[in-house]
Amino acid sequence: MGKEGFLSPKAIGNRIKAKGLQKLRWYCQMCQKQCRDENGFKCHCMSESHQRQLLLASEDPNKIMDNFSQEFKNDFIELIRRRFGTKRVQNNIVYNEYINDREHVHMNSTQWETLTEFTKWLGKEGFCKVDETPKGWYIQYIDRDPETIRRQEELEKKKKQDLDDQERSAKFIEEQVRRGQGGREPEVREYHYYFKIEGTKSINSSPNQIVVSLPSGSGKRKDAPSTSEAKEKKKKSALDEIMEMEEQKKRSVRADHWLHPGIVIKVVTKRLGEKYHKKKGVVKEVQDKYTAVVKMIDSGDKLKLDQSHLETVIPAPGKRVLVLNGVYRDTEALLDSIDERKFSATLTLDSGRMKGRRVDGIAYEDFSKMA
């Protein structure tokens, strides 16, 4: 028989076995070599390369362990931050996803003997919030990224500014009401009602009369609306117009977030590799206004991405789009034409009170194709 080659059944079987995770007891962390059985691990321990690695580790064993511990900690925290964000999750779930990588650092080569000990250490050092429940230990990542902290501060400033704008608008409306009334207090009118009291006797045998004074607007009898009241109604309608203008001004303020469920987006970051770069997906969920859960159209994979790593998708004319920013935010529309020189488009609104209105000069980043 000829010599077994690369495509022989035995060689193919060996490669299939080597792909999956093997037993931890037959793994050498120093050499980063996985053996398939006890005999292979014994032969590896007797090899010259393994003996050389042991001599190097014996010179400074604490340094070697610290390096493995640091690498394990960094990879574990990066997985929590990228995969789960600031959600509360069980530590076993994170660890099971971590060990799916065949090249991961094993815990038995670190300073922590158990996952519970490592979880407690994360809480003590302030990397995560940890709590123990009858179902086990849960961890929650604490995001200390300067960019995230800066974004939160900007949101707080924006909220404070919105409150100040509302106070100024309220004062402006009160001033308009006061001017409409001419700076006078509401009038109090007196109405005289005459009632005949039966069953009583008077000396002059004439019906007794009682005068009752009531403020304007009360009582069972109502007068016909006067000209002053008609003017007041007109002033109220003008006041309503002012309030509508204020609401429109509030909506016209541009927001720093534009993500919306149901829109088509394109991944522009290269950190995820060429598999997802410049690929399109659909936003399934929006978290914290700036983060989206995206389902890729080609592969069906679900990714959690920041809006800075995404961009809008401009469809062909005649397709439906959603306005994401500006006065007409959250309004569905039809794409009429595109102005490539000004990087803008002309839309026809297809929902809301302004349905049918044609709007020019909508920037590319302010609308996107609907799924």
Automatic annotation (TrEMBL):
Residues 220-232 have a biased composition (Basic and acidic residues). It holds the Pfam family WH_KIN17. Keywords: Coiled coil, Cytoplasm, DNA damage, DNA recombination, DNA repair, DNA replication, DNA-binding, Metal-binding, Methylation, mRNA processing, Nucleus, RNA-binding, Stress response, Zinc, Zinc-finger. Residues 149-176 form a coiled coil. Residues 206-238 are annotated as: Disordered. GO terms for molecular function: double-stranded DNA binding; RNA binding; zinc ion binding. SUPFAM superfamilies: beta-beta-alpha zinc fingers. One of its GO terms (biological process) is DNA recombination. Involved in DNA replication and the cellular response to DNA damage. May participate in DNA replication factories and create a bridge between DNA replication and repair mediated by high molecular weight complexes. May play a role in illegitimate recombination and regulation of gene expression. May participate in mRNA processing. Binds, in vitro, to double-stranded DNA. Also shown to bind preferentially to curved DNA in vitro and in vivo. Binds via its C-terminal domain to RNA in vitro. Associated with DNA polymerase alpha, RFC1 and cyclin A, in multiprotein DNA replication complexes. Also associates with replication origins at the G1/S phase boundary and throughout the S phase in vivo. This is DNA/RNA-binding protein KIN17. It comes from Oncorhynchus tshawytscha (Chinook salmon). The lineage of its organism: Eukaryota, Metazoa, Chordata, Craniata, Vertebrata. The gene is LOC112216941.
